[in-house]
Amino acid sequence: MTEAFDAAGAAAPPAGPLDLERRQVLLIIGALMLGMLIAALDQTVVSTALPTIVGDLGGASHIAWIVTAYLLASTVSTPLWGKLGDLYGRKAFFQASIVIFLVGSALSGVSQTLTMLIAFRAVQGLGAGGLMVGAQSIVGDVVPPRERGRYQGMFGAVFAVTTVVGPLLGGFLTQHASWRWVFYLNLPIGAVALVVTAAVLPGNLARIRRVIDYRGALLLTLSATAFVLLVSLGGVTYAWGSAPIFILGAAGVALLAAWSVVERTAAEPILPLRLFRNKTFSATSAIGFVVGFALFGAVTFLPVFLQVSKGVDPTTSGLQLLPLMGGLLFTSVASGLLISRWGRYKVFPVVGTAAMTLGLYLLSTVHAGTSNGLMSLYMVVMGLGLGGVMQVLVIAVQNAVRHEDLGVATAGATFFRSIGGSFGAAIFGAIFSNVLRGRLAADLKGVPLPKNLGASVSPALLQHLPATILHGVRAAYATSFDTVFLVAVPIGAVAFVLTWLLPELRLRSGSDGTHGADAAGGDGAGGDGAGGDAAGGDGDGAGGGDARDGTGGPGQPTAAGDRGPGS
């Protein structure tokens, strides 16, 4: 086996998780959670401040772009961040992500026009993409897959907390300070994260080759942008059959085709096509896309339902989402601990998507008169399902690829989940608006309505409506909400079916970055490989590969079959 050298001629560090003490690992995980906290928080904290922002800066017709710009920038940048981390080492780029995010936050806070705010939100999103991918990839550098579950569960807990705390905090700051503090809040948290990461993150994570696939990155970014714009503008700004929508669709397909051609010859592809031959990567990408589509698209409307149909204020609506957070938090942490103990993970996304689909159906049955207790129960079911899926998919894909592909594989899984969320939010938004328009016309029988009444209606506007109109509006919103969740049910069912295609690879517990080292008999992470039975029980080797996936460690499959050298 030849020794790898970096660009300076020095021996490159061995691929695989670092051998660190538990105290060091906990410090690193804490630093990463701070970075993920600000990125995850900014996905939700802005929602309750939107009506106030538009009232201050104007441009109500472009309100959705305050959220879309952030989501789009974070989504399209994830593959590039992942690849840069693989090539140059993840610490520097994780810190760069924090700096970019903080600059975007400060500029967003001082914005004087809506156009400025949208542009600076995109800067924030660019940094957020690096924070999300960097945090989950660095875990792979410091923790073996077998132990990774408990820590990924902590990351899931961060998302759970921000799901509820975000809208709650956004409403509080907007009401008692200014909407600008929604962005300024990131500065002290980010500063602490920057200092802590500088002190505790290991810096010796340099990789071997230093070639950046600029063409692939540009083409993938442009293609993803075209598709996200298509679903964001279609049926809202432009008719689905209009020329702009057709042009965006054609451009997205053409750019995607060009990207696939470029990736076949690139020295260091931004998202290697060989990853799609890995059954685990393909399955987790498909599951993540569908789950993101169903959940992020549908759950976006929960605060709208609570504020309009149930008549609560933004702060109270945040509090009423606590059952969702509780279910997600419990399953996320519990599944992580059980995965670390059992060394298996497939059962969690299977059960999780089933619970998610059930939760979507239950929420499709609620109406303005549904009791808070019943609503809370339905949200708990939804949260329990969500917590068993998202972080588990990251564990699965990280376990299935070689360590040098850790960052780009993690970024790919995150990319498809984010794209699914973008599609879901846009398409369900269009469904909601169209159904709402028809329900308002039917329920109010032509009664004139305030021109600002729509999907982004504020509770303050509802307070000034006559009782008869208010009742009709709340009923129309509840019906539209039910339709969105009912449409999401079969999409959740598709995710459930896809989870059965996810391979069950035994999680590694060694620190050498190879597959199959920890199997306790039976089928290992990648079949027989170097070392044979002595390394991993019956049929498991220290570097087993699987001819069906093309994955594995040093014992890569040969033309003669699926056994590496030493079989």
Describe the overall structure.
The chain is mainly α and 567 residues long. It contains 21 helices and no strands. It is globular. The two termini are 17 Å apart.
Question: Quick recap of the structure?
Answer:
The chain has helices spanning about 20-45, 50-55, 65-90, 90-110, 115-140, 145-175, 180-185, 185-200, 215-235, 245-265, 280-300, 300-310, 315-320, 320-340, 345-365, 370-385, 390-400, 405-445, 460, 465-500, 530-535. The chain has about 575 residues and is mainly α. Helix 5 packs across helix 18 (about 405-445) and helix 15 runs antiparallel to helix 20 (about 465-500).
Helical residues, percent:
55-70%
**Count of alpha/pi helices:** 21
Radius of gyration: 24 Å
**SSE arrangement, N to C:** HHHHHHHHHHHHHHHHHHHHH
Q: Extract low-pLDDT stretches.
A: 1-16, 511-567
Q: Give the biggest beta sheet.
A: none
